[in-house]
Specification:
There is one protein chain. By secondary structure, the protein is α+β, with helices and mostly antiparallel strands. It is 27% helix and 31% strand. The chain contains ten helices and 21 strands. The strands form five sheets. It has a six-stranded mixed β-sheet, with helices on both faces. The protein has a five-stranded antiparallel β-sheet with strand order 13-17-14-15-16. A four-stranded antiparallel β-sheet has the order 2-1-4-5, covered by helices on one side. A hairpin with a 2-residue loop joins strand 1 and strand 2. It binds adenosine-5'-triphosphate (ATP). The site of adenosine-5'-triphosphate has 12 residues, from strand 2 and helix 1.
Length: 365
């Protein structure tokens, strides 16, 4: 089923929680809504579920206008962070509950409960009660309850935030597998950008009630269209400097030919580079190591270069000889820099094309 939100505005008194938002989710697509706390993610999801009263806007399922359809008639499954399963019911009763409400014939309900429990991996736990389950198992029961009616749309609001890191990674992959298997149109609200990048077909970045970036995980990571997208997406986060700031010595020196081409606009430019694009080695600007953070596969190296604090993600072998106070060359391939207008925070492209050696190639005509 295709879900289309058209011109959604939600006001709570003077607060504009969602501001004229339009968004279409394709049939079978998993779309992640990410953004800082209070940006309107839950409110938007609530509108699709039928819990949020809109000040303006329409909701379409395929071509059907369902804006005024009551929540229980929308054929939606949802898992909310605090939407706990019923403690006095067994797992089977919990999963079955939506079918009871829908007054499904008993045999059909039995079949769907058993099938869905198997699907999410709680088939062996049907007679247990919630207090006899782990957090991850409870979350699966909540998911099974959301899926048992085979809803047209699945809404997930921070469904994994109560789980520890290991279980979160495992469960998110299972959610994705189920979602693909059932071909279900899904909206996932999360504050965890890595979760969004990992399993979504597209990521919508929200800020102050609006969508400020919407693209595939790969595209939004490689080419963030605004400074906020650049800050929010990617872990560890991008190194960012306003060129007018006194601590921008590193980008100013590294980007000298580009800044010359930018002329007076350079002072109104913000630049960024992802930590994995910062190279350490014998060449480059002289940097001094401040701190090494071991992240497992990589090491995050905190450096000071030309008065700037720089974070570089490096291979453990590359940094084996480094420690606090040691010196190392720091360089960035010119094409790895991102440029933003300091006033509008919108992505800009530097003048001309950047050759790999950092020389600005001016486009003719
Ligand atoms: P979080 O990540 O913290 O859950 P969110 O992006 O989901 O945040 P929403 O819950 O949609 O944000 O809230 C958007 C804005 O609307 C916030 O400023 C919030 O304070 C406000 N808001 C939400 N619900 C209500 C309500 N019932 N009454 C008044 N204001 C509300």
């Amino acid at each position: 089923m295709r879900v289309a939100i058209e011109g959604l505005t939600v006001r709570y008194g003077p607060v504009v929680a969602v501001d004229n938002l339009s968004l279409t989710i394709a049939p079978g697509e998993l779309l992640a809504l990410v953004g800082p706390s209070g940006c309107g993610k839950t409110t938007t999801l609530g509108f699709v579920a039928g819990f949020t009263r809109a000040s303006a806007g329409r909701l379409l399922f395929d071509d059907r206008d369902v804006t005024t359809l009551p929540a229980q008639r929308r054929n939606i499954g949802y898992v909310f962070q605090d939407y706990a399963i019923y403690p006095h019911m067994t797992v089977a009763q919990n999963i079955r509950f939506p079918l009871e409400v829908a007054k499904l014939p008993r045999r059909e309900a039995d079949r769907l409960v058993a099938q869905t429990a198997e699907l999410v991996g709680v088939g062996g736990l049907l007679s247990r009660r919630p207090h006899q389950l782990s957090g991850g198992q409870r979350q699966r029961v909540a998911l099974a309850r959301a899926l048992v009616k085979r809803p047209g749309v699945l809404l997930l609001d921070e469904p994994l935030s109560n789980l520890d890191a290991h279980l979160r990674a495992q469960t998110r992959a299972e959610i994705r597998r189920l979602q693909l298997e059932l071909g279900m149109t899904t909206i996932l609200v999360t504050h965890d950008q890595s979760e969004a990048l990992a399993i979504a077909d597209r990521v919508a970045v929200m800020s102050e009630g609006r969508i400020i970036g919407l693209d595939t995980p790969a595209a939004i990571y490689a080419r963030p269209l605004s400074l906020l997208c650049a800050r929010l997406i990617g872990a560890p986060p991008m190194n960012i400097w306003a060129l007018s700031d006194p601590d921008a010595g590193f980008p100013k020196q590294a980007l000298a030919p580009v800044l010359e081409a930018l002329g007076s606009a350079a002072a109104r430019t913000v630049v960024g580079v992802r930590p994995e694009q910062v190279r350490l080695g014998p060449t480059g600007l002289p940097g001094s190591v401040r701190l090494l953070e071991n992240l497992g596969r990589d090491v995050l190296v905190h450096l000071e270069v030309a008065g700037s604090q720089v974070r570089a993600l490096a291979d453990p072998e590359v940094v084996a000889s480094l420690g606090p106070g040691t010196s190392v060359g720091v360089s960035v391939s010119p094409a790895s820099w991102h440029f933003f207008d300091a006033d509008t925070a919108v992505r800009i492209e530097p003048p001309g094309r950047l050759a790999p050696d950092g020389v600005v190639v001016r486009e003719e005509g």
